[in-house]
Design brief:
Layout: H1 3-16, H2 21-31, H3 34-51, E1 60-64, H4 72-78, E2 82-87, H5 90-102, E3 108-112, H6 115-118, H7 122-132, E4 138-144, H8 155-165, E5 167-178, H9 188-200, H10 211-215, E6 224-235, H11 240-250, H12 261-276, E7 282-293
Parallel strand pairs: 1-2, 1-4, 2-3, 4-5
Antiparallel strand pairs: 5-7, 6-7
Helix pairs in contact: 1-11, 1-12, 2-11, 7-8
């Protein structure tokens, strides 16, 4: 490979660092095997929801951190009582709005907000439910790759608030995250830890599989069934700029780590040498955690409307 070609790739890699997060996620969704894999787990959860709810009862769902929602077709069809797509990124929601208007979809609602604020405690969750969910509980809440922007120490309170204040008595919460336990070179976890540790002295401590141990100490979850599994997916796209856009998403640049220009050049050169030249896909091991709420005797709460 000639130096000029390497320089050109570096230029494209740096350009990719300017992509917005919903654009990065869109590339990942289009070219990784991850979204079809998420759909498999999602369908298992939906099947379980239908099994424990009356056939004539329409279900509702809330997707937190929805982005431009690659699972849109599944969720829109399965949750006819209402599908709320919630995200902090207005650009991603605008893309969804165009589709909803174009296809005259009536049961999907878009909400822009910060889940760290709107669901920070049970009172906040009750208020958010009253203002955006018509004061009705939903049967499914998804947090697909949304918890990266919340400290792991805050997860129990966040999950409890949503579980207690938003989720229906026979509902489910599904979370998906990159596994922090993966150590193999060439995986997304290794790539993140390698550069976060080198440039920021940081490493991922966001282990989704540890969350059930923390939740089971709370009586709120005494009737909760937990499903946990890990699976491997891969990503490759035959366009270096688009490939690098996903690398920046994995490295949480700039929303988690603000790498300098020199550091971004070093990262780009590393990716050229270790991934792009050998045609090596990114491998991601990811964890799935689903909480099934199996309350035996649903009770109205004082701050709530109807279930």
């Amino acid at each position: 490979m000639h130096v000029a070609t390497v320089d050109s790739l570096i230029e494209r890699g740096l350009k990719a660092s300017e992509y917005r997060i919903f654009e990065q996620n869109n590339i990942w969704a289009r070219h990784a095997s991850e979204k079809p894999d998420v759909a498999v787990s999602l369908m298992k959860t939906i099947r379980a929801l239908h099994a424990r709810n009356p056939q004539n009862r329409d279900l509702a769902a809330l997707a937190i951190g929805a982005g431009d929602e690659p699972q849109f077709r599944i969720l829109q069809a399965a949750f006819q009582r209402g599908l709320w797509l919630y995200d902090i990124d207005g650009a991603a929601l605008a893309k969804l709005r165009e589709r909803i208007d174009r296809q005259s979809i009536k049961n999907v609602y878009l909400v822009q907000g910060d889940y760290g604020w709107d669901f920070q405690n049970p009172n906040a969750a009750y208020y958010t439910r009253a203002t955006i969910l018509d004061d009705r509980r939903v049967d499914l809440v998804t947090l697909h790759h949304a918890l990266y922007y919340c400290c792991a120490t805050e997860w129990p309170t966040l999950v409890k608030s949503i579980y207690q204040g938003v989720l229906a008595p026979r509902g489910a919460m599904q979370m998906v995250m990159m596994s922090t336990r993966e150590t193999r070179p060439g995986t997304t976890t290794w790539l993140y830890n390698h550069f976060a540790r080198k440039f920021s002295g940081a490493a991922s401590d966001q282990d989704l599989t540890q969350l059930p141990q923390l939740l089971k100490k709370d009586d709120v979850f005494k009737h909760c069934q937990v499903d946990c599994e890990s699976r491997e997916v891969e990503f490759w796209v035959d366009d270096f700029e688009r490939f690098m856009a996903v690398v920046w998403m994995i490295l949480l640049y700039p929303h988690g780590h603000d790498y300098s220009l020199e550091q971004r050049i070093e990262i780009t050169e590393f990716v050229i040498e270790h991934f792009w030249r050998p045609g090596r896909p990114l491998i991601q091991t990811q964890d799935y955690l689903t909480l099934h709420k199996l309350d035996p005797a649903p009770v109205r709460d004082a701050m709530a409307g109807v279930f």
